[in-house]
Amino acid sequence: MLQRAHLLQDQLTAWRRTIHMHPELSFQEVNTAALVAQALADLGLRVQTGVGETGVVGYLGQGPPTVALRADMDALPIQELNEVPYASRVPGVMHACGHDAHVAILLGAATLLAESPPPRGQVRFLFQPSEEGVGEDGKSGAVRMLEDGALQGVDAIFGLHVHPDKPAGMVGVISGPAFAATNAFRLTVRGHGGHGAYPHRTVDPIVLSAQVITAIQTIVARRLRPLDSGVVTVGTIHGGTKGNIIPEEVTMSGTIRSFRPEVRKLLCAELERACGVAKALGGDFELHIVEGYPPTINDADMADLVRRVAADLLGAEQVYTPDPEMGAEDFSFFLEQVPGCYFRLGTGGSERSMYGLHNPHFDIDERALPVGAAIMAAIAQSYLRQD
Predict the structure, then answer these.
(1) Coil, strand or helix at 375
(2) What is the pLDDT of residue 352?
(3) Fewer CB within 10 A of the terminal residue: the chain, N end or C end?
(4) DSSP E strands: which ranges in the chain?
(5) What is the pLDDT of residue 172?
(6) Does 195 lie in the same domain as 167?
(7) Among all residues, which ones are annotated catalytic?
(8) DSSP secondary-structure letter at 294?
(9) What pTM did the predictor assign?
(10) 50-63: per-residue pLDDT in tens?
């Protein structure tokens, strides 16, 4: 399988670079979806478009059993700074999270499986929109694909994410929690504005905000059990219009990350308590917490299957166990429905691929593309054989 995948290097690179040059934001992946649909149709697969708004589903074989392989398609609102022939041609939009590679890899896996003996069951290829964001209804691409029945009849699901911290071709697999749950928050701290020369006649919301932020920073340090993991980050703060004017209010936004439901609940409650400092000092606050993605929790048996496949293809020395990360993934919604595994594929190791995710210089070592395609295809074959 790996040898066959290496023969696809030029095609995989071409797919990836075409998508990279023409990135599309969440729920706008029209051209990417058209490329995917045409490639799947050329392979002889049954193709369904418009799934989850702009998603594509390809069907190979007949289930049950049915195994699903997933790739996300959306880009990020980042201005690319790479000086390469395939740099983004869309101002302010870039594939800085490797979703272009994910799509190319899954198309490669579809190619390998379409050219193999028919599977004993069905392989379903999910090309998902909008992993990086949500629509006006607060739903991500995974949720919308679920609502459109993309996972109906599926017995297991697998996906991967590029990982620039490891050399091209290494595979990271973890059982249990792999990525965190998210909550977003918006906070308004209110005081009483006035002239900056007469602070005693005001309740300064900037000073209140400073105290609130200090209290927020004690949540993980002093309210969370040391053996648990959590993050509360204030990412934006806005207040005031002029240096000699004390404003009426200050607004903030941030993120809460956790792995366990009870920790998630605790962090939200403690954030509310920390904001109460504003009231204690004569001001007021308004806090809105919005629940985001659940934690991404890999099934132990499915993780073992990925480890075995990767070790067989690449050698056991190329397979490692990563630490759980506080990043989040809406693949978690799929894993709440069926067992599966979301693993990491090394794409670093070269000068061009030294930058991290969501960086304007992000790029990958494209030698990882056939490795990813081979592993995804082999996982599907292995699952259907063992079922």
Answers:
(1) helix
(2) 74
(3) C
(4) 46-51, 55-61, 66-72, 122-128, 156-167, 171-172, 176-179, 181-190, 194-195, 230-239, 245-246, 249-258, 284-291, 296-298, 319-320, 340-348
(5) 98
(6) no
(7) 293, 366
(8) P
(9) 0.92
(10) 999 999 999 999 97
